[in-house]
Amino acid sequence: MSFDHPSFGKIDASRVIIFDTTLRDGEQSPGFSMNLAEKLRMAEALATLGVDVIEAGFPVASKGDFESVNQIARHTKGSVICALARTGGAKDIAAAGEALAQAERKRIHNFISTSPLHMKYKLRMEPETVLELITTGNTAARNLTDDVEWSAEDGSRTDPDFLCRCVEAAIKAGATTINIPDTVGYATPEDMLRIFSMLRERVPGADQVIFSAHNHNDLGLAVANTLASVEGGARQIECTINGIGERAGNAALEEIVMALRTRNDQYPFTTGINTPDLLKVSRMLATITSFDVQPNKAIVGRNAFAHESGIHQDGVLKNAATYEIMTPESVGWTRSSLVMGKHSGRAAFRDKLKSLGYDSLDDAKLNDAFSRFKDLADRKKAVYDEDIIALVDDEVRDHAHIRFEHLKLASVSGQPSDAELTLNVEGKVITSQAIGNGPVDAAFNALQAAFPHDARLALFSVAAVTEGTDAQARTSVRLEEDGKMVDGQGADADTVVSAVRAYVHALNKLLIKRDRTEPEALTV
Ligand code: KIV
Ligand code: ZN
Predict the structure, then answer these.
(1) Which PROSITE patterns match (predicted)?
(2) Which atom in ligand 1 lies closest to the alpha carbon of residue 151?
(3) Cα 287 to ligand 2 centroid, rounded to whole Å
(4) Which of 98, 218, 265, 393 could form a disulfide with 287 if both were Cys (CB 3.0 to 4.6 A apart)?
């Protein structure tokens, strides 16, 4: 590659650009929506992680999306900020340009479908019309910024000759990055390698742009397809934290980055990712969205570096490389798990939080978390990292409208339970009483009395944070109202209190969602 990229200047041929779409493709998936403050926190964390491009949203889709792209463009420094737009929509491109106006470095990403299936049934357009739109769309975007990306939606199922014509038209109209998504997660690694090799060989001007891979995980091949794309010549990877995204998700950022780093013998490429931050950012996203990663998830799952069998434990003690292909520290895990007790002071607690990645807690949240830690240390023999994480996650959750204050329960087997619940609703303390079929039912009925609502409880699950009967419980609650779905989480040594905290968290999210204008249907 021998050209100056508008945002990155001269790029080394072995450097892979990391384009994170957690806040756009990731946020698009059901249950993963974030409010403005949460998106800003994530954008900040992504910039610190070393992501090259942050796709912040789809400004024309809703007022909320416009606002979040605009705020991220104003405040998040260090990464290129990117906004999505449809190639055919003049309004889309104008909205993207306006939302990005204050960004330090900005990119407009425009896309249109190019596969026969999508052009015929979704767009109802002739291929020649799509080609014309590619020219007008990229020209319009290029008038607003020098950094323009064009995507061939459903590119992996597009006729190769037509794909070459589309890419050529996009390059001629000024696109500087060409993205070929496997939109429906259908491709194999061989397909992706072939597509990128073909485009680089056949399209005039291919050496003047960066090719980009965007793989969905419907067959569980997103990461493998991305690595194959890099082998085929792609030098930008589109991915999300924890692999969140439409349907089965996108390629997981942490997996790709660690595959490139760990198997550098096979993939001699570098990224700008500060890998010891990976776990912290993964947890931040899980906390914000209330979706834990599965325990066996590569890199960031709870079991990713756990060795259960005696033979493995023995091997790791003798030489960690026997069963560990990368060090836990290289992705942010710390080895010591047993931490603190009731005599630990505020400074030690703050240090501990720092080592666990919570370095931006404000004083009020730190005080609340410390006082909950002291309560826990009084009741629990040993306080582990996992306990502290559960407790702090609970503190940083959004409790803008409703806060849990106090719960009193009376329960005798075979009889209805009594609950007395105190909430703080926008500064007003409300206490209510209710009975129920067991303590959780009684507590939820008291919650309904204190804060009447129509949401339906769609999911309720409880898990222990650590081992032992004194372990904290972590509860997940899903609420549904008028087709809107939200998930909440809560943790506490008292299982019923953890359930109430989770319910309150979900209600807070629902209130934010009620205020949000939903995007109008987008068809092009
Ligand atoms: O999966 C896809 O095709 C997309 C495009 C908008 C890039 O997300
Ligand atoms: Zn996608």
Answers:
(1) AIPM_HOMOCIT_SYNTH_1, AIPM_HOMOCIT_SYNTH_2, PYR_CT
(2) 7
(3) 23
(4) 393
Topology of domain 15-289, per CATH?
Answer: TIM Barrel (3.20.20)
Domains of the chain, by residue range, sit at: 15-289, 336-396, 402-514
Distance linking the first and last C-alpha atoms of the chain: 33
pLDDT in tens, 459-475: 898 988 877 788 889 89
d(CA 337, CA 465): 13
Tell me the C-alpha distance between 365 and 76, whole Å: 23
**Within 13 Å, how many C-alpha atoms sit on residue 498's CB side?**
24
Using pLDDT thresholds of 50, 70 and 90, give the confidence band for residue 516: low
Question: Three-state secondary structure along 382-436?
Answer: CEEHHHHHHHHHHHHCCCCCEEEEEEEEECCCCCCEEEEEEEEECCEEEEEEEEE
**Amino acid identity, position 49:** L
Strand-pair category, 80-86 with 148-153:
unpaired
Displacement of CA 369 from its chain's centroid (Å): 24
Structure tokens at 396: 């940083």
Annotated binding-site members for Mn(2+):
25, 214, 216, 250
Distance separating alpha carbons of residues 443 and 499, to the nearest angstrom: 9
As given in the structure block, the two tokens for residue 321 are 């490389």
The pair of structure tokens assigned to 31 is: 């249950």
Say if domain 402-514 classifies as CATH 3.10.400.10: no
The verdict on the CB of residue 55 being under 6 Å from ligand 1 is: no
Tell me phi and psi for residue 429, to 5 degrees: -85, 125
pLDDT, tens only, 420-450: 999 999 999 999 999 999 999 999 999 999 9
Q: Decide whether any atom of ligand 1 lies within 6 Å of the 181 Cβ.
A: yes
Q: Are 80 and 106 in contact (CB under 8 A)?
A: yes
pTM score of the predicted model: 0.82
- Please identify, by atom number, the ligand 1 atom nearest to the C-alpha of residue 238: 7
Burial class (CB in 10 A: 0-12, 13-18, 19+), 201: exposed
Taking the CA of 183 as reference, the closest ligand is 1
316-362 residue pLDDT tens: 788 888 888 999 999 998 765 555 778 888 888 888 888 777 777 88
SS3 of 10, please?
Answer: strand
Residue with tokens 């339906």: 456
CA-CA-CA-CA dihedral for 166, 171, 175, 177, to nearest 10: 80
How many angstroms does the Cα of residue 138 sit away from the middle of ligand 1?
16
Q: CA–CA separation, 55 vs 238, rounded Å?
A: 9
